[in-house]
Design a protein that fits this description.
Blueprint (H helix, E strand, L loop, with lengths): L3 H27 L5 H20 L2 H18 L7 H22 L9 H10 L17 H12 L3 E9 L6 H15 E7 L2 H5 L6 E8 L3 H9 L4 E8 L5 H4 L5 H13 L5 H5 L12 H28 L2 H24 L1 E3 L1 H4 L2 H12 L2 E7 L4 E3 H22 L3 H6 L5 E11 L2 E8 L6 H10 L5 H4 L4 H5 L24 H9 L3 E7 L3 E9 L4 E9 L2 E6 L3 E7 L5 E3 L2 E6 L2 E7 H4 L11 E8 L2 E7 L1 E9 L13 E6 L5 E5 L1 H4 L2
Parallel strand pairs: 6-8, 13-22, 17-19
Antiparallel strand pairs: 1-3, 1-4, 2-3, 5-7, 8-9, 9-11, 10-11, 12-13, 12-20, 14-18, 15-16, 16-17, 18-19, 21-22
Helix pairs in contact: 1-2, 1-4, 2-3, 3-4, 3-5, 4-5, 6-11, 13-14, 16-17, 17-22
């Protein structure tokens, strides 16, 4: 069988199971008395082992098999949980993640896990974990009565003992295949161990089944032996009394049970009952298909704008009505498609608890990570980009923010520090707040570093507010670390975080209270593909400004414009803000100054500026298209869009204009 067609599903499901193991291990570490977590971990490890063996990834299967032994010993109270056990399990998960990553990158998934396997074996003292063996099957009153009824109808009853090979890794899967063969031949009345135990591999290598069938022993024997890794099959006829002989022996309770089975129960085996389809109505869709769907819809949005413009020009009522209806339907379709691309931020957040745990151990700190709002959804394109900045901020909080336990105690704090990661929606944006109760930011230290590095001069330093001082840590190459550390970025600073977030059309702000902690707040757009924008005219050219950056529009008279150090400024609601003439910045030809200024007030974090344009065209949903290699490094231009009349409008990057 060609396994390549299942590889993508294997990789995706393996990552889900590994994430579940990680999550449950983190919870179990905090409450080792709750074996429910161990059962969850065991189920995921067991499933991963089965999938890996089926796909031929032996190192994966071997390591998960040894993990199972440790987990089974824990849940059966044969092994006390201590740091060595937990560390070995976490280390195993790390190795499994490396192997799965190798497979996803086209590798063979092989890894030298001998030392890790030996460590797991030492933990359980290399003693086999007790399992449920196939014991003699019990013919209770109910089973005997059912068999007698089938005997009257001419069916045979067999007790079938199946012995699997000792080296079989997929015992439950092989048992399932045997049951499938038996169900095609008749009805399974009972099994030992129970179906549930067999499914959970709680048996050594053999099991017993009672089957009612009209097939011969020879045919059954041959059919079962065709299943891979079946070592032997023993079939014995079950002596059955006639129903008339049984009537005197049947109790009223059993008679009622027989009636219920006969009337209401379909002729399915317990295994078949277990594999009935659930009501789960979700499907897995390759993200490339969603990208293709989005690209097609973007073209539809462009054509929709064109139709709306033609409709206005022709002034035809029937056309107007049709276009209006199409716009409404395509708007609903747009909402559906965008929602299909939305992914919970937990796909990013899930890796952080484990990361913080390891960093805490490396640094000798005690830190608790609290996650709130992990179900908040973002477009997949934003999700792909936000992971690295958050990792950098978390590492910074662990390394620079949270103090050592002794220092916290001396300052009257709990020796365990807390980092809180919170995501929530607000309008058309998602906010992610990262807050810690650590040492906070030392204002004077930051200011001195900025002066030493020439980021600001002494005169400017005297005028800065606390918030402006804190924002200096986002300057390129800025770091307050006394020593270079592998934990929080080797002194590179947080400028990379800021640049990445702003490239996504977002912003990041910081607030701090020295001695009590810091908070980084990230604002992100819900999606990057289709955005609402204000179209503006400059001479014969049109530009688009994202609404997410706009505060409001205004008409400013020339007499209201002031000049400070050669810079045009205006008084906007009690604050002096700079005024930028976009025609000058973009060298727009044939530009003529009118008798007033049309101004768009835009923001970038806490900073504000006014952009002078010729006129406002109006609000419109536009499709953001990358400039690719055509205009590399174009100043303050984030992309382009095609308007309804077929013309191209450049999209202005407001963040690049505000310094």
């Amino acid at each position: 069988m060609d396994m390549n067609q299942y590889l993508e599903v294997f990789i995706e499901e393996s990552r889900e199971h590994l994430q579940n193991v990680n999550d449950q291990l983190m919870r179990f570490e905090k409450n080792t008395d709750d074996l429910g977590y161990v059962n969850e971990i065991f189920r995921s490890a067991h499933t991963l082992k089965g999938m890996s063996a089926t796909m031929g990834f032996d190192d994966l299967a071997q390591l998960t098999h040894k993990m199972e032994n440790v987990l089974d010993a824990v849940r059966n109270h044969q092994l006390d949980v201590h740091t060595e056990v937990l560390d070995a399990l976490f280390e195993s998960v790390d190795a499994l993640e490396i192997m799965v990553q190798s497979i996803s990158e086209g590798g063979d998934g092989q890894l030298d896990v001998k030392l890790l396997v030996q460590k797991l074996q030492r933990i359980v003292a290399e003693e086999p974990v007790a399992q449920h063996a196939a014991s003699p099957i019990e013919y209770d009153e109910l089973v005997q009565t059912l068999l007698s009824q089938t005997a009257d109808q001419g069916f045979n009853a067999f007790e079938i003992t199946v012995q699997l090979e000792r080296t079989c890794l997929l015992k439950a899967a092989r048992a399932y295949m045997v049951f499938d063969v038996l169900e095609q031949a008749g009805d399974v009345i009972k099994s030992a161990p129970t179906v549930q135990d067999i499914e959970q591999e709680k048996f050594e290598s053999s099991f017993i089944v009672i089957l009612v069938t009209n097939e011969s022993q020879e045919k059954l024997q041959a059919s079962i032996m065709e299943v891979s890794e079946v070592e032997s099959v023993k079939i014995a006829a079950v002596p059955v009394k006639k129903e008339t002989e049984m009537e005197e022996l049947v109790s009223p309770e059993v008679a009622a049970a027989i009636q219920e089975v006969t009337v209401s129960a379909p002729s399915k085996s317990p295994v078949e009952e277990k594999r009935q389809p659930s009501n789960n109505k979700t499907i897995r869709v390759n993200i490339d298909r969603l990208d293709s769907l989005m690209n097609l819809f973007e073209e539809l949005v462009i054509d929709r704008g064109r139709l709306e413009q033609i409709s206005k020009e022709l002034n035809n009522s029937e056309l107007d009505e049709t276009v209006e209806r199409m716009s409404r339907i395509s708007g609903d379709l747009q909402t559906i498609i965008l929602n299909m691309r939305m992914v919970p931020v937990e796909t990013v957040f899930n890796r952080f608890p484990r990361m913080v745990r390891q960093l805490s151990k490396d640094l000798g700190k005690q830190i608790e990570l609290q996650i709130v709002g992990a179900d908040t959804e973002l477009d997949r394109t934003v999700i792909d980009e936000i992971g690295d900045p958050l990792v950098h901020l978390l590492r910074n909080a662990v390394d620079h923010g949270i103090e050592m336990p002794q220092a916290r105690l001396e300052n009257g704090k709990n020796e365990k520090g807390t980092i809180r990661l919170k995501a929530y929606h607000s309008g058309n944006h998602v906010f992610i707040d990262l807050e810690d109760d650590g040492a906070g930011i030392n204002r004077e230290k930051v200011l001195q570093k900025a002066l030493d590095r020439g980021i600001i001069d002494g005169k400017t330093a005297e005028t800065l507010t606390d918030k402006q001082v804190y924002e200096l840590i986002f300057a390129s190459g800025f770091s307050t670390a006394e020593q270079i550390s592998d934990v929080s970025g080797r002194g590179v600073g947080l400028d990379v975080v800021k640049n990445t977030i702003e490239s996504l059309g977002g912003s990041v702000t910081i607030d701090s209270n020295e001695g009590y902690g810091s908070r980084f707040s990230i604002q992100l757009p819900l999606t990057l593909s289709i955005i609402s924008a204000l179209l503006v005219q400059m001479s014969e050219e049109r530009y688009a400004l994202p609404l997410s950056s706009i505060i409001e529009t205004a008409i400013v008279q020339p007499k209201e414009v002031m000049h400070v150090h050669g810079q045009k400024v205006i008084d906007f609601r009690g604050a002096i803000i700079p005024l930028l003439d976009l025609k000058e910045l973009f060298t727009v030809p044939n530009s003529v100054q009118g008798d007033h200024y049309s101004v768009v007030i835009v923001k970038k974090g806490e900073k504000t500026a006014g952009l002078i344009v010729d006129s406002f065209i109006g609000q419109q949903e536009i499709v953001l298209k990358s400039l690719g290699h055509y205009l590399p490094g174009a100043f303050a231009i984030s992309g382009a869009t095609i308007l309804g009349d077929g013309q191209v409008a450049l999209i202005i990057d407001c963040n690049a204009l505000i310094k």
